[in-house]
Design brief:
Elements lengths: L1 H19 L3 H15 L3 E9 L4 E7 L5 E2 L2 E3 L6 H13 L1 E3 L4 E7 L7 E13 L9 E8 L9 H12 L8
Parallel strand pairs: 1-7
Antiparallel strand pairs: 1-4, 2-3, 2-8, 5-7, 6-7
Length: 173
């Protein structure tokens, strides 16, 4: 089983490298098709991570436009919270003060009618090292909640309103 997991991990790494060379809309669509081809329903995690200055962590991927909350897919046999902790470490070298708190579960109809996103809220403890851009993450940094970048995605901006201001939660990402 470990050999299979390692092979899948290597394949994903190669796939991401290939996707980064394609136009972003095409790369995004192919990533979704890959996800759907490997499982019937996809489950992802995202985190609203605040630092000690009440700034929020956002990441910019190499293969899709805009600033997003950090996150990624939940693998078979992996708990959502463990996937979130792993993604924060991989995408931003972030360690947490405590276990992420579940905020809501959304259907992500932008990509597929089979995709779901589990959103967590958490406080960061620190960064093990500054995040160096790689084949997946172009940049990861904290922003003032009052000065989000202009290219923040619509869904990310909406989730910020839900988390910070108690705007009613949507069930659609």
């Amino acid at each position: 089983m470990k050999k299979l997991k390692d092979a899948v991990s290597r394949f994903k790494s190669i796939a991401i490298k290939v996707l980064t060379g394609l136009p972003r809309p095409l790369a995004s669509r192919l990533a979704v098709v890959f996800g759907l081809s490997t499982r019937a329903m996809t489950l992802g995690v995202r985190a609203v991570v605040f630092n000690e200055h009440s700034e929020v962590l956002l990441v910019q991927h190499t293969y899709v436009e805009g600033w997003h909350f950090p996150g990624g897919g939940v693998e078979r046999g992996e708990a959502a919270v463990q996937a979130m902790i792993k993604e924060l470490r991989e995408e931003a070298n972030i360690t947490l003060k405590s276990v992420p708190k579940l905020f809501h579960i959304y259907r992500n109809t932008q990509h597929s009618r089979f995709d779901h996103v589990v959103l967590f809220v958490c406080q960061h403890e620190g960064q093990t090292d500054p995040k160096v851009p790689d084949h997946e993450i172009a940049e990861a940094r904290f922003f003032s909640i009052n000065a989000l970048p202009e290219t923040v995605t619509k869904s990310t901006a909406q989730r910020m309103q839900e988390v910070l201001h108690g705007v009613p939660k949507s069930d659609i990402w």
